[in-house]
Amino acid sequence: MIVMMGKIKQFWINKPLKSILILALLVRLIAVIFSNGYGWHDDHFLVIEASQSWADGKDWDNWLPNGQLETWPNKEPVPSGHSLLYAGIHYVLFSIMNFLGINNPDIKIMLIRLLHALFSLLIISFSYKITKRYSDERIAKQVGLILALLWFMPFFSVRNLVEFVCIPFILWGTWLIVKDKAPKINLFVWAGLLMGVAFSIRYQTIVFAGGVGLVLLFTNKVKEAFIFGAAVLFSIILVQGGIDLFVWGRPFAEFQEYVKYNLAHKGDYGTNVWYMYTTVLGGMLLLPLGVVFFFGWFSIIKKYPLLFWPSFLFFMFHNLFSNKQERFILPILPFFVIAGAIGWWQFMDKSKFWQDNKMLFKGMMVFFWTFNFIALPIVSTTYSKRSRCESMNYIGTKTNAKSILLEDTNRGSVDYLPNFYSGRYIKMYKYAKPSINGLEKLTYSCYNTSYTSVIQTPEYFSYNDVENPDYVLFIGEKRLEQRLVNLKKYYPDIEYETTINPSYMDMLMRRITPSNNNQLVFIYKIN
Question: Strands 521-526 and 471-475, how do they pair?
């Protein structure tokens, strides 16, 4: 045992980056196995649900022209404002799985999580190298360990979030620019191409790329700035423009629709105070790092402008834009950690107070790692949106289930359930709290997706030439008895089958933020 510990210590001393990557991989593999489900609507329905449907020769949300699923009412598909690159990559992956006969949705999504976990290691590798380039191995180790073991990183590393998946590309591009004191011109070309790809995954990263160009320009690297900018533009035209030209017959169709939609609906989602992302970044790093890293970030403005200005411009853009959601700030998280660590540790090295009180900061770091290691295993093994995923898993085992009724009349809308986990395509009818004039529109239905419709009343099935649902899923336990009585007016013979519980973390998040609709699901069979 002593010999083994000695070898591990020696390996850490000789090969710190490899040691950190191995450690990071181990905790991410735990998340691959145990962190089932999805975190938000976007990381499942805008990636997994869409791409799997394409691989099956269908079109989940009418995203593509000439979709192969019939929709109601008949509607000509138009660009939806979603970049098709990332979802397209998953289309290829799911097509390969279909070809190999891998049909179990749980196995499919675990393979996807594994690929994302491996890809996320690039974040740690490039962050370590950039930090070491501007400081020393001591600080690089700290940055590497923080990004490897930060409480939420394994969880995010296996999610299908474009805000997270774009990070390796902007880090890689940054590394190519800073790796040599006098980098060759071709490195600026490659850096620009990579950041162009990042744009085609997450449009807002163009702000970061613009910040890089401005830093090059104002540090008298005019030639390099224009070459970098041209490479970014070429990459965007080739990837984003090329995909849209192939799909829609015109370049940038999706990007144009994205801009139009967000300008028109900028106040519809997640609006918050202008300083929201200050608290988000600080909170992600916990105490005390969340505070001292802000100090370190701003302390390197003059010394390392490339580490500050691109990320700061990205930070300010999202602070000023009204649509604010926590995950939007993720692309600059590693740069905040890199710049914050370099700035803070270099400040401490010159500070008489901190040199005289080294035990104080060691105590602060013990405090940080203690709370971090309490949260890390809990978050890394969280089954997010469990009740939604397991409900569809259960329905998928019922071969007689062709359509289901989602009853959530406590609320004005019903959340999507992930059809992916059923392993097939089941028609869903969403029955929410009826609108004021709902009783006047007994036959009302509106188009949502290729297989989801909204109804105002179960009488819809009596007035329309459609099959009755085979199962009803009651979302949430509130007023359950009353809701059962109401539904039995239309379906007197319904039979209870099972209850699907949310995960512990889902329940905790709902208690903290009631808008998280992670509730129990009660499944009844309609006879």
Answer: antiparallel
